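User: For a reading group we're discussing how well predicted structures match intuition. Take Relaxase/mobilization nuclease domain-containing protein. Before you show the prediction, I'll give you the sequence so everyone sees exactly what went in.
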Amino acid sequence: MIVKILDPSTTFKGVRYNTNKVDKDKGELMKVSGFGALQALQNLRPEDYVNYLEAQSAASKRTKYPQLHAVISCKGRSHSKQQLTAIAEQWLNGMGYGQQPYLLVFHKDTANNHIHIVSTRVDRDGKKINDSFEKIRAYEVLNRIVGVDEKQEVDKNIEKALSYGFSTRAQFMMILEAQGYSLKLSDGIYQISRYGKRQGAVSLEQVDAKIGTFSKDISRLAQLRAVFAKYRGQYDPAIVHVTAPLPGNRPSAPSGYTSAMAQMLSDKFGVQIIFHGKDGKLPYGYTVIDHSRKMVYKGKDLMPLTEFIAPSEDIPEISAKAETKAGRVEQNEKEQKTPSEETPAYTDHVQGTSEQWIPNIQIDISDDIDDEAIHGRNRRRKRKARTNTR
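Assistant: Thanks. Here is the predicted 3D structure of Relaxase/mobilization nuclease domain-containing protein, as C-alpha cells, for the group to look at:
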C-alpha cells in the first residue's frame, strides 16, 4: 500500500478534481467531516466546500499553500472502499488532521483501488499543521496502521534480492531500486534507504560473492527469444514514453520508456524490462529482470536492442519452430503459477507480492515505484548504479 502527498497548491482545486470524478461515476464521496453546519445543508456544490476551506485557511497569512491533497492506494482490489476510508481516517488522525475539515473520495476508475483526501493545512486557530518530514511521516503512519514492520520488510527484500542471479553490482542495485529503495556504497557497505531514511544494509562482500556464482541460463534466454518471436505480431516492441496521469488529467513529463511487448512480458511471464537512456534520448541499452526465475541479464544476452525495439512491421515472420517453443514456455509458466499469480500483480513501496516483484508504473496519480528512468548521468546524480556499460 502506498501514500502520496500531491504537489502543493495555493487553491483547493483538489475539491473540483474529485467532485468531477463523482459526477462522471468514476468516484464516490465516502465521507465529509469537520465542515460544521455546512454538512447539514442539502445539495452542496463543490464551491461550498472550497469556500469553507478557503475561509478557514485565510486565518493564516503565512501559509502559501493551504491545500492538503493526498492519495492512499492499495494493490488491485485488495481493499474495499470502506476499508480504504477507515485507513484514510486513521491516517489523518496520525498526521494531525483528524479535527480538520476534509473530504474522502474513493476512485474506482483504475486497476488499483485508491482514495483521495482533501483538507486544509490551517487549523481553526489559524496555525499551520506540522508538516516537518511530512513524506517520511506519511509512510510511518500508514505502515503503523496496516501493520507493516519496516525493518522486517527491508530484511526480507534484501534476502530476496540476494537470491537472484546477477553478474554486476549495478544489476543487484536495480533489483532493490525497482522496489523503491535507494542504495549508496560507503566503506564497503550498501546503505539502503526508503521513505527518506536508512532502512538496512548489505555488505559489498556478499554482493560480490553472489556475482561470482553467476551462470547464464542459455536455455531460458532461448525460451524468451521464442516468446518474443511468437508474440511480436500481437504486441508491438516499439518503445513509447512512460507517463502517469496527474490530477486534472494532465500528463506527466516522460520518465522513461516501455513497450507493449515489455508490458506483456511483465504481465504474462514475470519478465521486467528496464530501458537505459538519459535526458529523454532514445535508450542505449536495456536490462532483463526475470522475476519468475530470479535471474538478471544484460539486454544484449537476449538480443540486440535494435532488434528488441524494432516495430512489428519491420520484423520478419516468425518460424514455426520458435512459435512451438514459445507455446511450451507459456504452458510451463502457467503450470508454475497459482491461479492468483496468473493475473498481473501490482507492487508498491510498502508491500510486494509473495512470488514476484513486478512494479506497475502506470498507476493513477501516484508514483508507485521510482518512476524516473534509470539513466547513466541521472543515476550518478542520484547515487544510483551506473548502467552505461551495457
